Amino acid sequence: MKAIRVHEFGAPEVMKLEEIPTPKPGAGQVLVRVHAAGVNPYEGYQRAGTYAIKPNLPYTPGSDAAGVVEAVGEGVTKVKTGERVYTARTLSGSYAEYTLVAQSMAQPLPEKISFEQGASVWVPCGTAYHALYHSAHAHASETVLVHGASGGVGIATVQLARAMGLTVFGTAGTAKGLELVIREGAHRAFDHSKSGYTDEILAATGGPGVDIVVEMLANVNLPADMKLLSTNGRIIVVGNRGEVTINARELMSRRAAVRGFTLWALTEAETADIHAGLHAAMDNGTLRPVVGKEIPLAEAARAHTEIMQPGAHGKIVLIP
To answer: How far apart are CA 273 and CA 277, in angstroms?
Structure first.
């Protein structure tokens, strides 16, 4: 099979398309024929060697994919050959024509969700669900600011929060992004490239501030986010690319909190809850992953370059 391989950490160009043996499923494992693979920012950090979790070289990147079950190993009972699935982490990497997963990592993909959308489920939508339900403990009638709402995680957060009954504010840096944020359910959208946009957000709340901020770029936005919070407000850090200096008094005066997480640290109960919630949301139309760009598998280096650029508009997926 064809797969992207990384033999050394470095720039996007270290990823090469190679021919390698197709893996065979062992006990409790599932082989999925990949129709689309999702590209996530953390995979770029891993490739560069700067992420907290470093894979053993050589390796195939990727955790998110969607496709059809090709074969199953002994003891697999949750999925069958021929079924449509999305993956939640993999054993062999998803930037490939086939990927090997534990049976718990292969989840049913509703018929109304395309393979390209399915490849946009686990990291983006799982992050959004965990941020709102488990970390922020969001409630209907609260106000949430989704900072960077036009990307994969941001869109999922907007969709889920709107369905939960929250007042949803979103930011984006382009006219196209702002239109997308409104179309996917935000009540208001703000251009975070404009000077003074945080004043506009505060004014839109009528004064008290927002209850929750879901933050995609904490190293840039965290100090300003803290000044937007209401009493008992929560900032949920989803993305960060460097160090940041804050004034903790902004938290103290508001009895506020800054919380962070990674999907790697989820408990089994949290993971099961996320999958159940995502499946229901996809099935009833609440969750509708937006694919912004489809790129051939051979051009994975271009995908890694583009995903780190500003102006996100949906999810980038690779097509084998």
So the answer is: 6
Smallest Cα–Cα separation from 109: which of 65, 76, 162? Answer: 65
47, containing H or E segment:
helix 41-48
Which pLDDT tens digit goes with each residue over 90-117?
Answer: 999 999 999 999 999 999 999 999 999 9
β-strand partners of 170:
146, 189
Residue (of 288, 292, 286, 285) closest to 176 by Cα position: 292
Residue 316's SS3 state is strand
Distance from first CA to last CA of the chain, Å, rounded? 10
Does this model's pTM top 0.90? yes
Cα four-point dihedral sign 101, 103, 105, 111: positive
Amino acid at 154: G
Exposure class string for 190-207: b at 16+ Cβ within 10 A, else e: bebeeeeebeebeebbee
Q: How many CA atoms lie within 13 A of 294 on its CB side?
A: 12
- CA distance to 65, 104, 153, 206, per residue, from 140 (Å): 32, 31, 20, 18
267 beta partners: none
Hey, what amino acid is at 61? P
Query: Cβ contacts of residue 164 below 8 Å, gap of 6+?
Result: 132, 138, 139, 140
The b/e string for 87-126 (b: 16+ C-beta within 10 A; e otherwise) is bbbbbbbbbbbbbbbbbebbbbbbeebbbbbbbbbbbbbb
Q: What residues pair up with 37 in beta bridges, in sequence order?
A: 65, 318
- pLDDT tens across 246-285, in order? 999 999 999 999 999 999 899 999 999 999 999 999 999 9
Element (H, E) at 191: strand 188-191
Q: What is the phi/psi pair of residue 270, to 5°?
A: -65, -40
For residues 101 and 99, give the distance between their C-alpha atoms in angstroms, rounded to a whole number. 7
